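Subject: mismatched residue count in predicted assembly?

I count 611 residues in my input, but I want to confirm that the predicted structure covers every chain. Input:
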Amino acid sequence: MSARILALALALAALAAVPWWVPGDYYISVSSQILIYAVFALGLNVLVGYAGLVSLGHAGLFGVAAYATASALAAGFGHAGAILFALAATLAGTAVFAALALRAAGIVFLMITLALGQILWGLAYRWISITNGDNGVPVASRPAPLGFALDVPAHFYYATLAVFLLALASCYVFIHSPFGVSLKGTRDQPRRMNALGYHVWLIRFYTFLFSGFLTGVAGILFVYYTQFISPQTLALTSSAEVLLMVISGGTGTLLGPIAGAALVVIVKNIASAYIERWNMLLGVIFVAIVVFMPEGLVPGSVRLAQWALRAIRPAASARKAGTS
Amino acid sequence: MSLWGILAVNSVTFGGLLFLLSAGFSLIFGLMRIPNLTHGSMFMLGGYVGSSLYLTYHLPFWLAALCAAAVVAAFGGVIERLLLRRLAGSTLAQVLVTLGISLIVADFCLMIWTGDPISVATPPALAGGTREFGIFFTTYRIAVILVACVVAALLWALLDKTRLGAMIRAGVDDPQMARVVGIRVSRLFTIVFCLGAGLAGFGGFIGAPILSVYPGLDSDMLPLALVVVILGGIGSLTGSLLGSFIIGFVYNFGQALVPELAYFVLFLPMVLVLVLRPQGLFGRLAP
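Triage response: the counts match. Full output below for your records.
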């Protein structure tokens, strides 16, 4: 247990010291980006990992939060008002999403979320009087909470880190609460949970709302980070990317999505500096992960390493037998 | 009046194209329980391959359409045999693989055919139109409607009147039982997957003179196929047919009346069906 606390303290110290040990503002910004996507992936993982419901429409909810923030700011709201409005709008959107998608479970759930996500994308793309279509909506300024100007990359990083830690803590509490345990029950044995008197639908509905809330928080951070929002953010590719983060890290673990977010953001930033074909690479990664490491990147690498070791060891032992 | 007439004709044409797309999707889903997210890509790939054959290699129009369908069907067969077959039983993995392939295909098409939209001229024999009841009917659109009807009739005959169709229906209703009585369900999977992909590819090319072929066509069409299948019910041919025409009408009228919300109006039939009849209009499978 103490080793765990030590590891946690070390990780926290490393995260807090990022502005000192990474070279330059660009990398501080990439670190912020990783944390933003980590919050997004945590939100999706609540649904994918703990409720067993795979959503391919979360980029739509992420976009609702971002567009709501940008539109409220453009309409003359203050930052606090815009953020509250965006959270309310995302929760309302999530409630509609959940009410419709939870008419089904499993694959039909996935299809409904995908269709709804694409409809939101279509809305962002076509509803030009609100969203400005393909040109997107700019956000003029970042907020300055407590006189702490977030225009400085390091300051923005700390604000993101604070939100990220809150999100992580809330996920921890959520998952280890009696509600979280009953949620895992509805994932593994929905019928038995139903027979025991749990309201399976309601548990899933609340979980969807929590997932949507975290997604909204990530969306607001994102729109302040890029200071711009366009329909591209809501595209199926974005939903696929965040799902890849969750799956590559290992679903149903608290730290998996964070590792996955770091991995995908870093690969994307490196890859887009050298090659133009990020989407093709993303597709290849998807297929490769599914075919070679279906259980997730971390356990999958361990298994592949063991397999490689076993492949080497008989040769080594044969050699040993030869010398003796 | 004539505006409404033209809109109605266009809606029926679009419905026909949607049927070519969604019939395969629905059958694949019904039989294999795979939401084939490459289906939009198959449509786009068919459009690109067909337009290259037609415009660059000057094949006759309908031959180009059949060749495009064959190429896309073969591609579908390869995917089914090499990837989906290995992942049988793991739905999430199949979803991810089809998603990955759709990203690869989209980028591949962008690489080969560049980002410029390709517009395909209607074949000369079907150019022009006739004026009836004060409405101008474009011959090509009528031809597309007829082709969709013929395909629907052929599919119906295949499923309802042949031994293969009986086996497919058995597989849709109860794959385990079908295996027990000696039907080679895995071979049916390949046949149905090729058939569905081929139909989508065929639709992609004969839709090209109307929709043109452009990057992003795949992600425009995939949600429409999803909505049609959610609406009509999974694995039901009648459901796809009716769903396609409903969505064809809703989408076209939406585009004409509230262009900014054209995609959003698709939401309404979907909400109604999900609230009132979650298994879809003709669905037999419990969701």
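Strands of chain A lie at 137-138, 228-229. Marking this ticket as 'not a bug'.
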